[in-house]
Amino acid sequence: MKQQERWQLSGSGAESYERFQVPSVFEPLARIFLAHVPLHPGDRMLDVACGTGIVARLAVPTVGITGRVAGVDLNAGMLDVAKRQSPPDEAEIDWRQGDAAALPFLDESFDIVFCQQGLQFFPDKLRALQEMRRVLAPGGRLALCIWRTIEHSPCNLAISTALARHIDAEAAARMQAPHALGDATVLRTLIGDAGFGRVEIHEATVTRRMLPPEQAIPGHLASTPVGPDVAALDDATRKALIDDIAADLGPYRDADGLAIPQGTHIVLAKKPDA
To answer: Is there a contact between 103 and 135 (Cβ–Cβ < 8 Å)?
Structure first.
């Protein structure tokens, strides 16, 4: 199974993702991401691997009616949820199903391309970056948000460790996949090889807010690709899995539940002028 396929959500996974993952981490992360990338009224903006569309939706008020916002994702279920989340005044978002290695847009269609936590899952990362470069206008901007190594993500590290103990190494590897491009040196080289210049890599930290683990972890697991594996466990094994994760996350408890730091790289680059 290809890495990208191992991380695809099926069934009700997209709804669970929007319910559990977006409020707890991906919306706060998107706000941090967008704060690093100045947008202007009239910008033409593409969100690659848009998921349920949080980056695109947050960009709309700034880009305004004179601009263009589009989102593309391989997973039709994610796009279905994205369309339902968009209020009437965001109807101008152009949602497309498509592969990052063959973006369904004309050359030089956008001023800026975003990709929040997507590049690390693409089977051909260089090709995907070259496609992002193709659809950018000369001098256009690239903005990537990519998790740092798993040691900077206590939540995913705890889950991966517990999955290895109670399911198998394959399930554990799925929770490590989001961190596959966590090395900044490798990332910088890859972006340069794709033809981008003026590469900047910044470190940032988002706080993942969750309810107490005994409440939050079952729903969180259901919103990831290991959800079906966890659901297939017998009750005793599932409880032991959740108990282990809760114990590892104990240091991050506060009055409201859990506050877990998660480190990311934010990458800014430019397509050379013509």
So the answer is: yes
Inter-axis angle of helices 125-135 and 184-193, to 10 degrees? 50
Model confidence band, residue 5 (pLDDT cutoffs 50, 70, 90): very low
Is position 138 within any domain? yes
Alpha-carbon span 139 to 197, nearest angstrom? 10
User: What is the Cα–Cα distance from 32 to 92, expressed in whole angstroms?
Assistant: 24
pLDDT in tens, 254-263: 998 999 999 9
Domain hosting 205: range is 3-153+180-210+260-270
Q: How many domains does the chain have?
A: 1
227: tokens are 């959800």
One-letter amino acid of 47:
D
Per-residue pLDDT of 118-134, as tens digits, reads 999 999 999 999 999 99
Q: Indicate the pLDDT class of residue 89, thresholds 50, 70 and 90.
A: low
137, 71 contact by CB (below 8 A): no
Place of tokens 């114990």: 247
pTM tops 0.85: yes
The whole-angstrom separation of Cα 18 and Cα 78 is 9
CATH number for the domain spanning 41: value is: 3.40.50.150
- How sure is the predictor about 91, in pLDDT bands with cuts at 50, 70 and 90? low
CA pair distance 172, 91, nearest whole angstrom: 39
CA distance 47 to 191: 17
253 within a domain of the structure (yes/no): no
Which runs of E-coded beta strand occur in 211-270?
253-254, 257-270
Structure token pair of residue 225: 């690709």
Local structure of 137: helix, strand or coil: strand
